[in-house]
Amino acid sequence: MTHDEARQRAMTRKILVSACLLGSPVRYNGAAKTLVHPALDAWRREGRVVSVCPELSGGFGVPRPAAEIARALLRQHGIEVFADSEIDALSARLAREG
């Protein structure tokens, strides 16, 4: 694969973005948390953005009780789930590309 082919392939990879960050009112309280960023705008123009709401995909409704992240621990409905990382992957990627 040539350098240009590798670059083109990287530019067409899809990027999953939380639906609430794209303006969909799917947060726990029925609101959106729209993110405005030049990199996100570019990804949209390129057709790379795939909107996903993990909570809705997991069967949660809107509105729903709030969840709390404390360190690498998620507490929701009295259930504790350890997260893989506290790093916000989208923010990290935007920081690199922005």
Number of DSSP-assigned strands: 5
Could you give the distance between the termini?
Answer: 27 Å
Low-confidence stretches: none
Structural class: alpha+beta
Main sheet makeup:
3 strands, antiparallel
The SSE order reads HEHEHEEEH
In DSSP terms (H or I, runs of 4 or more residues), the helix count works out at 4
Q: What is the domain tally? A: 1
Shape: elongated
Q: What percentage of amino acids are in beta strands?
A: 15-25%
User: Roughly how many Å is the radius of gyration?
Assistant: 16 Å
Strand numbers in spatial order across the main sheet: 3-4-5
- Give the rounded overall mean pLDDT: 78
Helix content: 25-40%
Which features would summarize this protein structure in a list?
98 residues; alpha+beta; 3-stranded antiparallel β-sheet; two-stranded parallel sheet; 4 helices; elongated
Structure description:
β3 (68-70) and β4 (73-76) form a beta hairpin. This protein is 32% helix and 19% strand. The protein has a three-stranded antiparallel β-sheet with strand order 3-4-5, with no helix packed on it. Strands 1-2 form a two-stranded parallel ribbon. The radius of gyration is 16 Å and the shape is elongated. The mean pLDDT is 78. It contains four helices and five strands; from the N terminus they run αβαβαβββα. It is of the alpha+beta class. The chain has one domain (3-97). It has helices at 3-12, 38-45, 54-57, 89-97; strands at residues 15-18, 49-52, 68-70, 73-76, 79-82.
